[in-house]
Amino acid sequence: MGFSKDNLKGFVLALLSSGFIGASFIIKKKGLRRAAAASGVRAGYGGYSYLLEPLWWLGFITMIVGEIANFVAYAFAPAVLVTPLGALSIIVSAVLAHFILKERLHRLGVLGCVMCIAGSIIIVIHAPKEHSITSVLEIWSMATQPAFLLYVGSVVVLVFILVFHFAPQCGHTNVLVFTGICSLMGSLSVMSVKALGTALKLTFEGKNQLIYPETWFFMLVVATCVITQMNYLNKALDTFNTAVVSPIYYVMFTTLAIIASVIMFKDWDDQSGGAILSEICGFIVVLCGTILLHSTKEFERSSSFRGGSYMPVSPSLSARLCSGGNGELEKHEEEDGSPSEEICLRRQELY
């Protein structure tokens, strides 16, 4: 068992981070809905009126507080410990969405939350110790090793393909496009955040790391990745159901961040096979919990389609709804809390 004092600090900070970030999803979506109702142009279709909405800024500030706590957590604990604890933000988001956004959380969703908690406990118990780093130059040598450079190159290529090819074609009908962009950039931001956090930690301890250009480079990468993530996460939240976006984003982001951390920081090099296997099992339990949350929403959606409680929609009307061409209908959709992908799926059934 590798749980240490530094791991404990990182664990507590990660818990606080999850609470703030989970709440920020809900607050920001409320702000996005208000902005869309006022302007008639949704963020998912290129609108930026949410920047004038105070509620969205409140959610943004809440997210910043959570990210700061998360930032500091990476300076004390390995990414293999901190990143999976983001599952707790999904629980906070799903529960608040149930009561505030009226996005119903079924009993299976509750089971998914329990599984996320159980998996997180397993990961915490078997987490590796944080490697002792004395200079940002050590992190730079890790970041420039061939294996990690190959990973970075692959991520950059995939992001460009998603942004310029898939996003214009199916970004508003396939939740994996926007969340994929966020997750890929997120894995790089985690590595840069850990590098920058460690550099600042060493600086506060009296070992000034701000004199090295590598520190400022990591800061630039963090800013670039965070801005990109924020933009496409807004698009995903405004286009799809919160309880769908949150778990899918978590699964993709956490998986990629752990892979990047194992490659760059070699978190598993000093661990036994049993400890690594336990961490993987705990992570799988967390993944199953998030997938169960997602499946619960899909079951609710398909059940509503099989019922006869809604009137058939004409193909032309559905096309306008899916393309965002009718502001009044979109406004009505936002007030009812019915996500746009449900109407697009109805359109497919009519054909």
Structure description:
By secondary structure, the chain is an all-alpha fold. It has two domains: 1-129; 131-269. It is 77% helix and 0% strand. The longest helix has 35 residues, at 5-39. Residues 304-351 have low confidence and may be disordered. Homodimer. Acts as a Mg(2+) transporter. Can also transport other divalent cations such as Fe(2+), Sr(2+), Ba(2+), Mn(2+) and Co(2+) but to a much less extent than Mg(2+). InterPro entries: EmrE-like, Mg_trans_NIPA.
Short characterization:
The chain is mainly alpha-helical. The chain has helices spanning 5-39, 54-76, 79-82, 87-99, 107-125, 136-143, 146-170, 175-204, 213-239, 242-264, 273-306, 315-323, 327-336, 340-350.
Describe this protein with a few key phrases.
disordered C terminus; transmembrane; 351 residues; EmrE-like; mainly alpha; endosome; membrane
Helical segment count: 14
- Spans where pLDDT lies below 50 across 5 or more residues: 304-351
Total number of beta strands: 0
What is the domain total for the residues? 2
Mean pLDDT across the residues is: 79
Gap between N and C termini: 57 Å
Order of helices and strands: HHHHHHHHHHHHHH
Oligomer: single chain
Helix content: over 70%
